[in-house]
C-alpha cells in the first residue's frame, strides 16, 4: 500500500487510520511515545508511559538507561522474545490436528476423550464420564474434533485470533488464556447440559480468544464495531443452529473476557500478581462448580 505523500513514517491504512510503520496494512490508533510512528499490537512495547516501537526500544533513543529499553515488554507485561511470534498458536494447531488424525485412525478415541458428565457405556458395560472420576475429559474434549468442517472452522478462528493475542500478551499468558477459556466452556457444559449429552471441540477456547480480542481492542482504543458485529453474528448462529453447544461458547466467552481484562488492565506495580490471581480465580470457580455438579450427579 502506498504511503501518504511526504510522510514516509506514517503509512495510511484503508479506512483513514494510520497503518503500522512495519505492517502498513494494519490500522492503528497507537503511536510510539518517542518517535510518534504508528505501531500495531505486534510491534508495540510497553513503556513507563505509553508504548514504544521496537527501534526506539532497541536504541533507547539516546537515553539507553531506561528499564523499558533494556527489558522490552508487551502490553500485558511479558518480556518480548525473539523467534516465531506465533509459536504457541502453531503448537496448539498441531495438537488439534494430531488428535483429529488419531481419531480418524481409531474412532473409539472420541468416546474416551469427549466431554460427557455421566452415562452408561454398553460396550464397556460400565458407567463413564466426568462424574465417575474422568475429569481429564474437561480438557481433552477441547482438542477433540470429528468432522473436517468443525476442526477447519475452529482452527481458522485460532489462527486469525491467536497470533495478535500471542504477540500482545506473551506466550505464557496467551497459553493460560486459551486453556482456561476452554476449561470455562467445558465447565458450563458440565453444569447445564444433560448428563449423557456428549460435547467436543475447541469452540470454548476460541470464544475465549474472541472475548479477549474485544478487551484488547478496547484497551488500545480501537474501533470495536467489527468485533461486536462478529460476536452478535456468532451468538445468533449459536442459539439458532441445532447441534451447537451454546454452553461451551458462552462459558468460554465469559472466561476469556475476564482473564483478558485482568491481564491488560492489571496495575504495573503488581501486574504479574494480579494476572496470576485472576487466572487462579477463574480456575477456582471452575473447580468449585465441577465439584458441586459432581456431587449433585452422584446423590
Automatic annotation (TrEMBL):
InterPro entries: Peptidase_S54_rhomboid_dom (IPR022764), Rhomboid-like_sf (IPR035952), Rhomboid_protease_S54 (IPR050925). It comes from the Bacteria. Pfam families: Rhomboid (PF01694). One of its GO terms (molecular function) is serine-type endopeptidase activity. This is Rhomboid family intramembrane serine protease. The chain crosses the membrane at residues 143-162, 174-193, 199-217, 224-242, 273-292. Residues 1-20 are annotated as: Disordered. Keywords: Hydrolase, Membrane, Protease, Transmembrane, Transmembrane helix. It is found in: Membrane. It comes from Streptomyces spongiicola. The keyword Membrane applies. One of its GO terms (cellular component) is membrane. GO terms for biological process: proteolysis. The keyword Ligase does not apply. Belongs to the peptidase S54 family. Residues 133-264 form the Peptidase S54 rhomboid domain. It is a multi-pass membrane protein.
